[in-house]
Amino acid sequence: MSPRHADRLDRLAPYMFAELERKIQEKRDAGIDVISLGIGDPDLPTPDVVIEELRRAVGRGETHQYPSNRGRQVFRDAITSFYDHRFNVKLDADTQVLPVLGGKEGIFHICQVLLNVGDVALGTDPGYPVYTSGPLLTDAEPFLLPITPENDFKPDLASIPADILARSKLLFLNYPNNPTGAVIEEGDTFFEEVVQFAKDNDIVVVHDNAYSEISFDGYRAPSFLSTPGAMDIGVEMFSLSKAWNMTGWRVGACVGNTEVVQAFWKYKTNVDSGMFDAVQLAAAKALTEARDFPDQMSTIYQRRRDLVIDALRAIGLEPNAPKGSIYVWARVPEGQTSAEFAQLVLDEANVVVSPGASFGAAGEGFVRISLSTPDDRLKEAISRIEDSMRVTA
Ligand SMILES: Cc1ncc(COP(=O)(O)O)c(C=O)c1O
User: Fold this and answer.
1) Rounded to the nearest whole angstrom, what is the distance from the C-alpha of residue 389 to the centroid of ligand 1?
2) How far does residue 104's CA lie from ligand 1's centre (Å)?
3) What CATH topology corresponds to 48-289?
4) Pocket of ligand 1 (CB under 6 A)
5) What is the pTM of this model?
6) Residue 19 CB neighbour total at 10 angstroms
7) CB neighbour list of residue 367: distance below 8 Å, 6 or more residues apart
8) How far apart are CA 393 and CA 348, in angstroms?
9) Nearest atom within ligand 1 for CA of residue 39
10) Which of 164, 192, 253, 352 has its CA 20 to 30 A from that of 202?
């Protein structure tokens, strides 16, 4: 008898970290000390001011009732003032800001808001897996554009076949990028091209802004919405997860084009009952009173990045040092697939790295190393990799 679930679930690839987690568990069950550089989940604590505000807010009975899907004024104002301060992007707090329960929830559910059955959602390969699973679970079709060193990790929008383009309604982008660490440099005209492309083809751009606040070497990532015309065709998913060490809190916002934000709000009134008010109040503190916190985190990640880059160079690899995100994207040695290299590292060094191919076929030949591991463990992982690779070389 076939299992009792909808056909659309069968279209999904297994969640890539499920396989990693299984392998780690197997080793740990055997008493082996495995260090995971697989998942991008900050190891450091949420800022004190945010935790204190949560404690205070939880003590207030008024936060215990159903929140509004629109979000608290103080939360929407905090997002708005942060966007103004950081990106010089002017948002209307009443109509252009919607709380989402993390960027992931926003990315997934916006597919339901924007896509009809059979529509196409454009994304990148490699890319965050929800750009694929979101459309698939909406009975729409993902179409992935390769991002590789050859195209400077920017998709070639002119390469989309005409029949696909005619059905495309949505384009997912993400800079600073997971998994490649690619960024939009000052003077890069890619976002301008994207705005023109979206206008010409009646496509909504959803820019996933999960990593804008983690950047290195003096680089500052722009918001897509600061591109002229972007507010006409796009929204951005902003998240506090990575930069304020709040992955467990599930807090972010969909901001930008009024029509899209309002459609999303209408949809969400039927899906969830908003974000816990105490979390909104605490997140507002992060955005107003801990604005510099992401810079402190960036300093730490930059130090870790340099450790990883030096070690990879020492074993003969030639990684590029990313200017943003919390990942190093490195080519694997000649003659090995990304899965073979990741397996070798796990077997020989008991260190987990993510095979590039698990982020899409164009990620073949690379591995992703996450920097969200305490310095001492990261150093230990690196020296284990160096030792084992010297032995195998
Ligand atoms: C590119 C990208 N987008 C979105 C997310 C989701 O983040 P959250 O749901 O915690 O905001 C992640 C998390 O790893 C990510 O890497």
Assistant:
1) 31
2) 5
3) Aspartate Aminotransferase; domain 2 (3.40.640)
4) 40, 102-104, 128, 174, 178, 208, 210, 239, 241, 247, 252
5) 0.96
6) 13
7) 329, 330, 332, 338, 341, 342, 345, 353, 354, 355, 356
8) 12
9) 14
10) 253
User: Closest Cα partner for 67 from 250, 227, 302?
Assistant: 250
303-342: per-residue pLDDT in tens? Answer: 999 999 999 998 888 888 999 999 999 999 999 999 889 9
HSE, side-chain direction, 13 A CA sphere, residue 116: 2
Q: For residue 3, how far is its CA from the centre of ligand 1 (angstroms)?
A: 30
Residue 6, burial from CB neighbour count under 10 angstroms (0-12, 13-18, 19+): exposed
Amino acid letter, residue 279? V
Instruction: Give SS3 for 165.
Output: helix
Q: What is the 3-state secondary structure (H, E, C) of 167-229?
A: HEEEEEECCCCCCCCCCCCCCCCHHHHHHHHHHHHCCEEEEEECCCCCECCCCCCCCHHHCCC
pLDDT tens per residue, range 199-254: 999 999 999 999 999 999 999 999 999 999 999 999 999 999 999 999 999 999 99
Enumerate the domain spans of the chain. 7-45+293-392, 48-289
CATH dotted code for 7-45+293-392: 3.90.1150.10
Distance 315 CA to ligand 1 centre (A): 30
